[in-house]
Design brief:
The complex is a heterodimer of chains A (about 100) and B (about 475).
Chain A: H1 6-15, H2 22-43, H3 76-80, E1 86-87, E2 90-91
Antiparallel strand pairs in A: 1-2
Chain B: H1 7-15, H2 21-33, E1 40-43, H3 45-53, E2 68-72, H4 99-106, E3 110-115, H5 151-158, E4 165-169, H6 175-180, E5 184-187, E6 207-212, H7 215-225, E7 255-259, H8 260-264, H9 269-284, E8 288-292, H10 296-300, H11 302-317, H12 336-347, H13 350-363, H14 365-392, E9 395-399, H15 417-422, H16 428-432, E10 436-444, E11 447-455, H17 460-473, H18 481-485
Parallel strand pairs in B: 2-3, 2-4, 7-8, 7-9
Antiparallel strand pairs in B: 1-3, 4-6, 5-6, 5-10, 9-11, 10-11
Classes of the chains: A mainly alpha (about 100), B alpha/beta (about 475).
Chain lengths: ~100, ~475
Amino acid sequence: MKEINETLLKECAHNLMFDMKEEEYQTLLNEFHIVQEQLSMIGEIDGLDQEEPMTFPFDCAISYLREDEEKENLTREEALKNAKDVFAGQIKLPKVVG
Amino acid sequence: MYLDKTIVELHNLLVKKEVTPYELAQEAIENAKNDSNNAFETICEQEALDFAKTLIEPEKDNLFWGIPYVAKDNYSTKGILTTGSSDILKDYVPVFDATVIKKLKEKKAVLIGKTTLDELAMGGSGTTSHKGKTYNPYDKTHTYIIGGSSCGSAASLASGIVPFALGSDTGDSVRKPASYAGLVGFKPTWGRISRYGLFPFAPSLDHVAYFTRSVEDAAIALEILQGHDELDMTSSLKEQCNYFKDLNKDIKGMKIAYIKEIVESVKDKVIIEQFEKTLNILKELGAEVNQVSMDKKLLTAIFGTYYVISCAEATSNNANLDGIKFGLREGNEKTYQEVMFKARTKGFGEFIKRRFIIGSYSLFKENQEELFLRAQKARRKIVNEINKILQNYDLIYLPALGSVRNPFESNVDKLEPNYLIAENHLAIANFAGLPSLTLPIGIDKDFPFGANFLGRAFEEQKVFNVAYALESKLEFKNITAKKVNG
């Protein structure tokens, strides 16, 4: 497993597109050993590796083709209602190409 | 004053026209405004009164007609602020209703307000909302937690503001605060209620869940909230049931198991004593009650398993909170990456950032096999063991938590096996997707505490029936902090 240190925690945070204060990284680093111990208890279960990973409680996902009927959708106005910067009916972001 | 009554009692008064929906809404809003437990994000005064005013002729067969209720602030409510108790959504106003909100509206229940939660439902203490701690109405000293994440909804019921509150339950977020707040806390089978419009946290574990102050009310609520929804592909096509009509106290011959290792992990003796009394009551009612055993290694691994799976799922489910389509956006950014980075840095609290990092850590290529996949395998093994017990028993019955009270400033050893088992076993119901109900069974020094029933998939009726039978033999139906502590 990857070794835990402050650099790794920062890498995780930045991959997740946020930052924390220096002291918050320190707190997390200090607490990580408890989390690791808690997680290590999983490894103590006998015969674990013979099990199949469980992703959902049961296989009940529904899949079917809907009838091709027109349904009520969001209007453009509604879809843009919560965006902070809107221009010409579209969400405006900083330029990607100069 | 009416709102310390149950839904059934209020319905009878509404039908007799002894009170109107408008008067009930007024009382609930007044109660909410006087709340001293930090239970509310938003009080929908105008919307509630305007809607209640339209309710004139009582609907005798509709038990939710004119009943005031509150919803946890992670349910989308059209035109009403919905924050998830997070700064990243502090001014987000949804443009659609969650399916359960829509169903309650169709039944003419009156939404009074949106309640506080641990930020984005990730937490169990009721302390990480952007509005700070939510308090337990049973504790005027504000020393002990009410539990979370559905803290504001629990506080609203325990203080008699409304008789019904929507919460959500990913690990125990309704059934745990139900124990600390003397309430019925219920989550059905995974798939029984549509989750469309509920902010996703960890979809393989998330459930719509709710609080009532009686088992009857819990059965009524499931009757109207159940059913398949084409907007939620994980909602089940199983036939719908008449949970209230079929409520029955006759539990003769019902087979109930309790798990020795979980009972032994409970710290507070008063819980054990009262739990044993209730075992005797269940036997007197004709149930067959037996002790069963489970591997302690599996039970101590519940928390780690839950933590890895929920944090990993949360990491991807909250990726849409980017400050672009909705949510916090500072302005003057140079790149779109900066828009996201600033929104998420400023918008998320420290506690959930930590959870996201742990989730991300467990998903690193080098760690996936060791952490994420192993947690998923442990989940399978725990669920298999529980389902083995449920092959021979109708229900599993256990103390809900290990302690009656839990202070905000806790020095508990988080690696101690008994703590890990007693305070986290309710997550088994989320791993397995099974129906689970917490019922108040005792009061110790003015604080209530509960026990929990766990049933087979889609056998909610049995869970309700046994809880209904036990409730009728105890004195904790429809308690509030005021009734208990004055």
